[in-house]
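Researcher: For the record, we're logging two predictions in this thread. I'll number them. Prediction 1 follows.
Model: Prediction 1, sequence and structure:
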Amino acid sequence: MTEADESSRSTYRHHASERTVPTGMLARIERDPLHEQIFSDPSVSNGVVLDFPDILKLADAGIAAKEYLSPEIPLASTTTVHDSFLHDLHLTQEENAVRTVEPDWHFAFDVPTYRDEDMASAQREQNIDNYRKGVSCLYERLKGTRTTIVPLLKAVYPEEIRDSFEGIKHICDGVIAVYVGQFFGPHVGNRHKEMERWIWQIDAICNPSGIILIGLLSPRYLAALPGSVIAAIGKRYWMRKTEFRTASLTTTRRRCRVLQNRVQKRLSTGYTQQTMSQFTASEVHADG
Protein backbone atom coordinates (compact mmCIF):
# COMPACT_ATOMS: atom_id res chain seq x y z
CA MET A 1 0.00 0.00 0.00
CA THR A 2 1.39 3.42 -0.94
CA GLU A 3 1.67 6.36 1.44
CA ALA A 4 -1.20 8.05 -0.41
CA ASP A 5 -3.34 4.90 -0.12
CA GLU A 6 -2.71 4.72 3.61
CA SER A 7 -3.61 8.40 4.00
CA SER A 8 -6.91 7.91 2.19
CA ARG A 9 -7.93 5.09 4.50
CA SER A 10 -6.78 6.63 7.76
CA THR A 11 -8.59 9.90 7.09
CA TYR A 12 -11.72 8.37 5.61
CA ARG A 13 -14.13 10.16 7.94
CA HIS A 14 -14.04 12.54 10.87
CA HIS A 15 -16.26 11.89 13.86
CA ALA A 16 -17.94 14.92 15.42
CA SER A 17 -19.89 13.47 18.36
CA GLU A 18 -22.01 10.74 16.72
CA ARG A 19 -22.11 12.24 13.22
CA THR A 20 -19.66 11.55 10.45
CA VAL A 21 -18.38 14.26 8.16
CA PRO A 22 -15.85 14.22 5.33
CA THR A 23 -12.16 14.88 5.84
CA GLY A 24 -9.22 15.24 3.50
CA MET A 25 -9.68 15.61 -0.24
CA LEU A 26 -13.01 15.10 -1.96
CA ALA A 27 -13.19 15.43 -5.73
CA ARG A 28 -16.02 17.45 -7.20
CA ILE A 29 -16.93 15.61 -10.39
CA GLU A 30 -19.40 15.68 -13.25
CA ARG A 31 -21.59 12.95 -14.74
CA ASP A 32 -18.80 12.41 -17.22
CA PRO A 33 -17.85 8.78 -17.99
CA LEU A 34 -14.16 9.57 -17.64
CA HIS A 35 -14.65 11.36 -14.30
CA GLU A 36 -16.65 8.40 -13.05
CA GLN A 37 -14.07 5.89 -14.28
CA ILE A 38 -11.23 7.72 -12.52
CA PHE A 39 -12.99 7.97 -9.18
CA SER A 40 -14.52 4.48 -9.21
CA ASP A 41 -11.28 3.52 -7.44
CA PRO A 42 -11.76 4.31 -3.71
CA SER A 43 -8.03 4.93 -3.18
CA VAL A 44 -7.87 8.14 -5.22
CA SER A 45 -10.12 10.37 -3.10
CA ASN A 46 -11.90 10.37 0.26
CA GLY A 47 -15.17 10.69 -1.64
CA VAL A 48 -16.79 12.44 -4.58
CA VAL A 49 -19.15 15.41 -4.75
CA LEU A 50 -21.88 15.96 -7.32
CA ASP A 51 -23.67 19.23 -8.01
CA PHE A 52 -27.34 19.12 -7.21
CA PRO A 53 -28.55 19.15 -10.84
CA ASP A 54 -26.74 15.82 -11.23
CA ILE A 55 -28.28 14.56 -8.00
CA LEU A 56 -31.72 15.32 -9.43
CA LYS A 57 -30.83 13.25 -12.49
CA LEU A 58 -29.75 10.34 -10.30
CA ALA A 59 -33.01 10.64 -8.37
CA ASP A 60 -35.05 10.66 -11.57
CA ALA A 61 -33.26 7.49 -12.65
CA GLY A 62 -33.76 5.88 -9.24
CA ILE A 63 -30.03 5.54 -8.62
CA ALA A 64 -28.95 5.58 -4.97
CA ALA A 65 -25.51 6.68 -3.77
CA LYS A 66 -24.39 3.14 -2.98
CA GLU A 67 -25.20 2.16 -6.58
CA TYR A 68 -23.53 5.14 -8.23
CA LEU A 69 -19.78 4.40 -8.32
CA SER A 70 -19.31 1.85 -5.55
CA PRO A 71 -20.66 1.22 -2.04
CA GLU A 72 -17.10 1.91 -0.85
CA ILE A 73 -17.01 5.44 -2.22
CA PRO A 74 -18.77 8.14 -0.20
CA LEU A 75 -20.94 10.52 -2.20
CA ALA A 76 -21.76 14.08 -1.22
CA SER A 77 -24.23 16.41 -2.91
CA THR A 78 -23.92 20.17 -2.99
CA THR A 79 -26.31 23.02 -3.75
CA THR A 80 -23.45 25.49 -4.26
CA VAL A 81 -24.42 26.02 -7.89
CA HIS A 82 -25.63 28.89 -10.09
CA ASP A 83 -28.20 31.25 -8.57
CA SER A 84 -30.53 30.69 -11.52
CA PHE A 85 -30.83 27.01 -10.60
CA LEU A 86 -31.34 27.76 -6.91
CA HIS A 87 -34.14 30.19 -7.72
CA ASP A 88 -36.24 27.33 -9.11
CA LEU A 89 -35.22 24.67 -6.58
CA HIS A 90 -37.92 24.13 -3.97
CA LEU A 91 -37.23 22.70 -0.54
CA THR A 92 -39.53 19.70 -1.06
CA GLN A 93 -37.82 18.93 -4.38
CA GLU A 94 -34.44 19.02 -2.63
CA GLU A 95 -35.72 16.82 0.18
CA ASN A 96 -37.20 14.23 -2.16
CA ALA A 97 -34.03 13.95 -4.24
CA VAL A 98 -31.86 13.50 -1.14
CA ARG A 99 -34.25 10.84 0.17
CA THR A 100 -34.01 8.94 -3.11
CA VAL A 101 -30.25 9.15 -3.67
CA GLU A 102 -29.23 9.09 0.00
CA PRO A 103 -25.80 10.71 -0.35
CA ASP A 104 -23.53 10.35 2.64
CA TRP A 105 -23.45 14.13 3.06
CA HIS A 106 -25.55 16.96 1.71
CA PHE A 107 -24.42 20.60 1.60
CA ALA A 108 -27.91 21.95 1.76
CA PHE A 109 -30.19 24.75 0.65
CA ASP A 110 -27.69 27.31 -0.66
CA VAL A 111 -28.86 30.91 -1.10
CA PRO A 112 -27.14 33.95 -2.66
CA THR A 113 -25.27 36.22 -0.24
CA TYR A 114 -23.29 39.13 -1.70
CA ARG A 115 -21.57 42.14 -0.18
CA ASP A 116 -23.30 45.51 -0.05
CA GLU A 117 -21.90 46.62 -3.41
CA ASP A 118 -23.70 43.75 -5.14
CA MET A 119 -26.81 43.14 -3.03
CA ALA A 120 -29.03 45.28 -0.82
CA SER A 121 -28.30 44.51 2.83
CA ALA A 122 -32.00 43.92 3.54
CA GLN A 123 -32.16 41.30 0.78
CA ARG A 124 -29.01 39.59 2.04
CA GLU A 125 -30.36 39.53 5.60
CA GLN A 126 -33.61 38.03 4.34
CA ASN A 127 -31.70 35.38 2.39
CA ILE A 128 -29.62 34.48 5.45
CA ASP A 129 -32.76 34.20 7.57
CA ASN A 130 -34.40 32.06 4.89
CA TYR A 131 -31.32 29.87 4.85
CA ARG A 132 -31.37 29.24 8.58
CA LYS A 133 -35.03 28.27 8.41
CA GLY A 134 -34.66 26.18 5.25
CA VAL A 135 -31.61 24.18 6.31
CA SER A 136 -33.10 23.57 9.75
CA CYS A 137 -36.30 22.32 8.11
CA LEU A 138 -34.35 19.93 5.86
CA TYR A 139 -32.37 18.72 8.85
CA GLU A 140 -35.55 17.87 10.73
CA ARG A 141 -37.24 16.24 7.75
CA LEU A 142 -34.22 14.09 6.90
CA LYS A 143 -33.54 12.82 10.39
CA GLY A 144 -33.45 9.07 10.36
CA THR A 145 -32.02 8.85 6.84
CA ARG A 146 -28.44 7.85 6.10
CA THR A 147 -27.60 11.38 4.90
CA THR A 148 -25.81 13.84 7.16
CA ILE A 149 -26.82 17.44 6.52
CA VAL A 150 -23.78 19.72 6.61
CA PRO A 151 -24.88 23.37 6.80
CA LEU A 152 -23.27 26.12 4.74
CA LEU A 153 -22.19 29.24 6.56
CA LYS A 154 -24.07 32.01 4.75
CA ALA A 155 -22.81 35.43 5.76
CA VAL A 156 -20.66 38.37 4.64
CA TYR A 157 -19.85 40.64 7.57
CA PRO A 158 -18.69 39.72 11.10
CA GLU A 159 -22.02 40.22 12.85
CA GLU A 160 -23.71 38.11 10.18
CA ILE A 161 -21.11 35.37 10.54
CA ARG A 162 -21.77 35.17 14.26
CA ASP A 163 -25.56 35.13 13.96
CA SER A 164 -25.53 32.69 11.04
CA PHE A 165 -23.35 30.21 12.89
CA GLU A 166 -25.49 30.40 16.02
CA GLY A 167 -28.51 29.45 13.94
CA ILE A 168 -26.94 26.39 12.29
CA LYS A 169 -24.30 25.01 14.66
CA HIS A 170 -26.69 22.41 16.13
CA ILE A 171 -27.19 20.73 12.76
CA CYS A 172 -23.81 19.00 12.45
CA ASP A 173 -22.25 19.44 15.89
CA GLY A 174 -20.51 22.69 14.96
CA VAL A 175 -19.13 21.49 11.63
CA ILE A 176 -19.84 23.86 8.74
CA ALA A 177 -19.17 24.05 5.01
CA VAL A 178 -17.84 27.24 3.46
CA TYR A 179 -17.88 27.95 -0.27
CA VAL A 180 -14.76 29.78 -1.50
CA GLY A 181 -14.97 29.39 -5.27
CA GLN A 182 -15.93 33.05 -5.64
CA PHE A 183 -12.34 34.03 -4.86
CA PHE A 184 -10.94 32.26 -7.93
CA GLY A 185 -11.74 32.19 -11.61
CA PRO A 186 -11.39 33.98 -14.95
CA HIS A 187 -13.71 36.84 -13.99
CA VAL A 188 -12.24 37.62 -10.53
CA GLY A 189 -8.63 36.45 -10.80
CA ASN A 190 -6.81 34.88 -7.87
CA ARG A 191 -7.83 36.44 -4.55
CA HIS A 192 -6.39 33.81 -2.23
CA LYS A 193 -5.18 36.34 0.35
CA GLU A 194 -8.69 37.71 0.68
CA MET A 195 -9.97 34.15 1.00
CA GLU A 196 -7.42 33.39 3.72
CA ARG A 197 -8.46 36.45 5.75
CA TRP A 198 -12.11 35.47 5.46
CA ILE A 199 -11.55 31.86 6.62
CA TRP A 200 -9.46 33.07 9.55
CA GLN A 201 -12.25 35.49 10.41
CA ILE A 202 -14.81 32.68 10.41
CA ASP A 203 -12.51 30.54 12.54
CA ALA A 204 -12.05 33.33 15.07
CA ILE A 205 -15.72 34.28 15.33
CA CYS A 206 -17.29 30.81 15.27
CA ASN A 207 -14.67 28.47 16.76
CA PRO A 208 -16.26 25.66 14.70
CA SER A 209 -15.71 21.95 15.26
CA GLY A 210 -14.60 21.77 11.63
CA ILE A 211 -14.69 23.68 8.35
CA ILE A 212 -15.21 21.94 5.02
CA LEU A 213 -14.03 24.13 2.13
CA ILE A 214 -15.88 23.91 -1.17
CA GLY A 215 -13.97 25.30 -4.16
CA LEU A 216 -10.33 24.89 -3.10
CA LEU A 217 -7.85 22.02 -3.45
CA SER A 218 -4.51 23.84 -3.74
CA PRO A 219 -2.21 22.37 -1.06
CA ARG A 220 -0.21 25.62 -0.96
CA TYR A 221 -3.27 27.72 -0.13
CA LEU A 222 -4.63 25.13 2.28
CA ALA A 223 -1.39 25.25 4.27
CA ALA A 224 -2.09 28.89 5.20
CA LEU A 225 -5.50 28.16 6.72
CA PRO A 226 -6.49 27.40 10.32
CA GLY A 227 -6.43 23.92 11.78
CA SER A 228 -10.22 23.85 11.91
CA VAL A 229 -10.25 23.18 8.14
CA ILE A 230 -10.74 19.41 7.96
CA ALA A 231 -11.71 18.83 4.32
CA ALA A 232 -11.27 20.39 0.89
CA ILE A 233 -13.49 19.95 -2.15
CA GLY A 234 -12.63 21.07 -5.66
CA LYS A 235 -12.78 20.27 -9.35
CA ARG A 236 -10.66 22.58 -11.50
CA TYR A 237 -7.47 21.87 -9.56
CA TRP A 238 -7.54 18.08 -9.84
CA MET A 239 -8.55 18.32 -13.49
CA ARG A 240 -5.61 20.60 -14.27
CA LYS A 241 -3.01 18.74 -12.22
CA THR A 242 -3.85 15.28 -13.51
CA GLU A 243 -4.19 16.23 -17.20
CA PHE A 244 -6.78 13.46 -17.22
CA ARG A 245 -7.94 14.04 -20.80
CA THR A 246 -4.54 13.08 -22.21
CA ALA A 247 -2.97 10.96 -19.46
CA SER A 248 -3.62 7.26 -19.05
CA LEU A 249 -6.08 6.09 -16.39
CA THR A 250 -3.23 4.63 -14.34
CA THR A 251 -1.27 7.89 -14.48
CA THR A 252 -4.34 9.98 -13.67
CA ARG A 253 -5.16 7.89 -10.62
CA ARG A 254 -1.56 8.01 -9.44
CA ARG A 255 -1.58 11.80 -9.72
CA CYS A 256 -4.86 11.92 -7.80
CA ARG A 257 -3.31 9.88 -4.99
CA VAL A 258 -0.33 12.21 -4.85
CA LEU A 259 -2.66 15.22 -4.67
CA GLN A 260 -4.81 13.52 -2.05
CA ASN A 261 -1.76 12.92 0.13
CA ARG A 262 -0.53 16.51 -0.29
CA VAL A 263 -3.95 17.90 0.62
CA GLN A 264 -4.14 15.75 3.73
CA LYS A 265 -0.68 16.80 4.87
CA ARG A 266 -1.57 20.49 4.51
CA LEU A 267 -4.83 20.05 6.39
CA SER A 268 -2.92 18.33 9.18
CA THR A 269 -0.55 21.28 9.62
CA GLY A 270 -3.03 24.17 9.84
CA TYR A 271 -2.32 27.08 12.17
CA THR A 272 -3.99 27.46 15.55
CA GLN A 273 -7.02 29.67 16.02
CA GLN A 274 -6.55 33.44 16.15
CA THR A 275 -8.43 35.89 18.36
CA MET A 276 -11.52 37.54 16.93
CA SER A 277 -10.11 41.05 17.49
CA GLN A 278 -7.52 40.42 14.79
CA PHE A 279 -10.20 40.17 12.13
CA THR A 280 -13.20 42.35 13.00
CA ALA A 281 -11.60 45.38 11.36
CA SER A 282 -11.67 43.76 7.95
CA GLU A 283 -14.86 42.85 6.13
CA VAL A 284 -14.21 40.17 3.58
CA HIS A 285 -17.13 39.01 1.51
CA ALA A 286 -18.44 35.58 0.66
CA ASP A 287 -20.74 35.37 -2.30
CA GLY A 288 -21.01 31.63 -2.76
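Researcher: Logged. Prediction 2.
Model: Prediction 2, sequence and structure:
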Amino acid sequence: MSPMKNVSKIICINGLYSKKVLDNLSTKFRRSYRFKQTVYIGNAALLAERTKKRKVKTTRLTIRFKQEQYEMIADLALALDTTI
Protein backbone atom coordinates (compact mmCIF):
# COMPACT_ATOMS: atom_id res chain seq x y z
CA MET A 1 0.00 0.00 0.00
CA SER A 2 1.35 3.43 -0.92
CA PRO A 3 2.09 6.01 1.79
CA MET A 4 -0.70 8.24 0.44
CA LYS A 5 -3.22 5.41 0.83
CA ASN A 6 -2.00 4.68 4.36
CA VAL A 7 -2.32 8.30 5.46
CA SER A 8 -5.70 8.72 3.75
CA LYS A 9 -7.09 5.63 5.42
CA ILE A 10 -5.87 6.73 8.86
CA ILE A 11 -7.42 10.19 8.41
CA CYS A 12 -10.76 8.70 7.32
CA ILE A 13 -10.93 6.21 10.18
CA ASN A 14 -9.85 8.73 12.83
CA GLY A 15 -12.45 11.17 11.50
CA LEU A 16 -15.20 8.56 11.79
CA TYR A 17 -14.53 8.14 15.51
CA SER A 18 -13.88 11.82 16.32
CA LYS A 19 -16.70 13.69 18.06
CA LYS A 20 -15.04 16.99 17.11
CA VAL A 21 -15.07 16.09 13.40
CA LEU A 22 -18.68 14.88 13.56
CA ASP A 23 -19.78 18.01 15.45
CA ASN A 24 -18.31 20.12 12.62
CA LEU A 25 -19.92 17.97 9.92
CA SER A 26 -23.28 17.87 11.72
CA THR A 27 -24.15 21.37 10.51
CA LYS A 28 -24.29 19.88 7.00
CA PHE A 29 -26.40 16.77 7.82
CA ARG A 30 -29.56 16.48 5.74
CA ARG A 31 -30.51 13.22 7.44
CA SER A 32 -30.16 12.08 11.03
CA TYR A 33 -26.94 10.33 12.06
CA ARG A 34 -26.10 8.32 15.17
CA PHE A 35 -22.64 8.20 16.74
CA LYS A 36 -22.35 6.15 19.92
CA GLN A 37 -24.90 7.71 22.29
CA THR A 38 -25.33 10.92 20.27
CA VAL A 39 -27.99 11.42 17.61
CA TYR A 40 -27.50 14.31 15.22
CA ILE A 41 -30.79 15.50 13.75
CA GLY A 42 -30.62 16.28 10.06
CA ASN A 43 -32.13 19.27 8.32
CA ALA A 44 -33.80 18.28 5.04
CA ALA A 45 -34.06 21.96 4.03
CA LEU A 46 -30.28 22.17 3.58
CA LEU A 47 -28.95 21.92 0.07
CA ALA A 48 -26.41 19.18 -0.54
CA GLU A 49 -22.95 20.60 -1.07
CA ARG A 50 -21.30 19.76 -4.33
CA THR A 51 -17.74 20.44 -5.31
CA LYS A 52 -17.03 22.25 -8.54
CA LYS A 53 -15.05 20.49 -11.21
CA ARG A 54 -11.44 21.49 -11.25
CA LYS A 55 -9.61 22.21 -14.45
CA VAL A 56 -6.45 20.75 -12.95
CA LYS A 57 -5.78 17.10 -13.69
CA THR A 58 -6.35 14.94 -10.60
CA THR A 59 -6.00 11.24 -9.90
CA ARG A 60 -8.43 8.99 -8.11
CA LEU A 61 -7.32 7.33 -4.90
CA THR A 62 -8.89 3.98 -4.02
CA ILE A 63 -8.87 2.89 -0.39
CA ARG A 64 -9.97 -0.46 1.02
CA PHE A 65 -11.84 -0.45 4.31
CA LYS A 66 -13.11 -3.22 6.54
CA GLN A 67 -16.84 -3.88 6.12
CA GLU A 68 -17.75 -2.20 9.43
CA GLN A 69 -15.78 0.94 8.54
CA TYR A 70 -17.28 1.03 5.05
CA GLU A 71 -20.80 0.86 6.51
CA MET A 72 -19.99 3.75 8.87
CA ILE A 73 -18.70 5.81 5.93
CA ALA A 74 -21.84 4.92 3.95
CA ASP A 75 -24.07 6.04 6.87
CA LEU A 76 -22.15 9.30 7.12
CA ALA A 77 -22.44 9.87 3.35
CA LEU A 78 -26.19 9.26 3.59
CA ALA A 79 -26.52 11.83 6.39
CA LEU A 80 -24.58 14.33 4.26
CA ASP A 81 -26.61 13.39 1.15
CA THR A 82 -23.49 12.57 -0.84
CA THR A 83 -22.13 9.50 -2.56
CA ILE A 84 -19.30 7.31 -1.36
